[in-house]
């Protein structure tokens, strides 16, 4: 479908640039500049933020040292790798779900599109419910891992030599965990970065690595015609590899196996990070990390951000 200005790659870039400029003006940088909050709500957010460890006035400003600290923090890189794994499912499933369902039976295009709706509805409902639960309990890792495992089971069903009904059930299982294990880590990592510069760096790295997962579906190369009358605009783009080639339908073993493996990898990484944060919190509550900062004042401790023994990680 090509409509409006999006009739070429240039039009797509123009739309993305325009949306970026609009979004940049819509979203505030802090509670003080949030136009949609009342004065009482702004005050409440400021009080809540001040009660959190590491939320100093300096920490809410952008410092280069925080950016460098973000690039050197292995925990952020672990989240990036995990996000790459789960986002593979996001791009593969969202892009090729109609193809997957089309391979399950003799459907028309309209029927195929209609059959995708219940899957997406289930994914949206599960995400809303789990987001509410995880936020109230401040437990991100547990739900990310559980629903990642459900999606892995779903891909296992899709790979299996089962009936059409079983494969369609597999689509629902994948959708059940899709948005949960993709979305929760995006809230989890920033919540463990009290310093603004490091938090923005971490978020940018996480989103960049996650979006890079879309490169696999599909890869495209440029074929240059071997003739003297060749001109650049005659280049033909040819798809040389994709996760869900039609020839592998209806089971699409390659696509499902790659997605299963990467989602499993991401879930295991997030499980490890949840365990690591739990162990770190236990040590800090027991005072086992106080010795290395015993000569620091409370103000200096607060400036350490997530490295402070007073800071407790969200698990």
Describe the 3D structure.
With 315 residues, the protein is mainly alpha-helical. The protein has 10 helices and 2 strands. A two-stranded antiparallel ribbon has the order 1-2. Helix 3 crosses helix 8 and helix 6 (141-159) packs antiparallel against helix 7 (164-191). The radius of gyration is 23 Å and the shape is globular. It starts with 8 loop residues before the first helix and ends in a 13-residue tail after the last helix.
Compile the SSE list and pairings:
Layout: H1 9-26, H2 39-51, H3 64-72, H4 74-102, H5 109-137, H6 141-159, H7 164-191, H8 196-212, E1 219-223, E2 236-241, H9 253-285, H10 298-302
Antiparallel strand pairs: 1-2
């Amino acid at each position: 479908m090509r409509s409006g200005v999006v009739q070429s790659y240039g039009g797509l870039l123009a739309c993305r640039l325009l949306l970026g400029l609009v979004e940049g003006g819509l979203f505030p940088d802090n509670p003080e500049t949030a136009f949609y909050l009342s004065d009482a709500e702004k005050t409440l957010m400021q009080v809540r933020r001040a009660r959190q460890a590491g939320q100093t006035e300096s920490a809410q400003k952008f410092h280069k040292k925080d950016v460098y600290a973000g690039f050197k923090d292995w925990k952020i890189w672990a989240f990036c790798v995990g996000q790459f794994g789960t986002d593979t499912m996001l791009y593969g499933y969202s892009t090729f779900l109609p193809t997957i369902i089309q391979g399950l039976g003799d459907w028309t295009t309209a029927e195929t599109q209609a059959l995708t709706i219940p899957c997406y509805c289930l994914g949206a409902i599960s995400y809303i419910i789990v987001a509410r639960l995880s936020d109230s309990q401040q437990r991100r890792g547990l739900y990310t891992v559980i629903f990642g495992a459900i999606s892995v089971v779903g891909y296992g069903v899709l790979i299996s030599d089962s009936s059409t009904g079983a494969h369609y059930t597999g689509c629902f299982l994948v959708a059940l965990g899709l948005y949960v294990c993709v979305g929760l880590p995006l809230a989890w990592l920033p919540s463990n970065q009290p310093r603004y510069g490091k938090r923005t760096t971490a978020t940018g790295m996480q989103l960049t690595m996650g979006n890079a997962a879309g490169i696999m579906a599909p890869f495209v190369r440029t074929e240059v015609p071997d003739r003297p009358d060749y001109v650049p605009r005659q280049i033909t783009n040819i798809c040389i590899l994709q996760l869900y080639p039609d020839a592998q339908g209806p089971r699409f073993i390659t696509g499902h196996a790659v997605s299963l493996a990467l989602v499993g990898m991401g879930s295991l990484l997030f499980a490890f990070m949840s365990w690591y944060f739990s162990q770190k919190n236990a040590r800090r509550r027991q005072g086992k990390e106080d010795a290395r900062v015993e000569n620091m004042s409370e103000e200096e401790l607060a400036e350490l951000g997530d490295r402070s023994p007073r800071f407790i990680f969200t698990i």
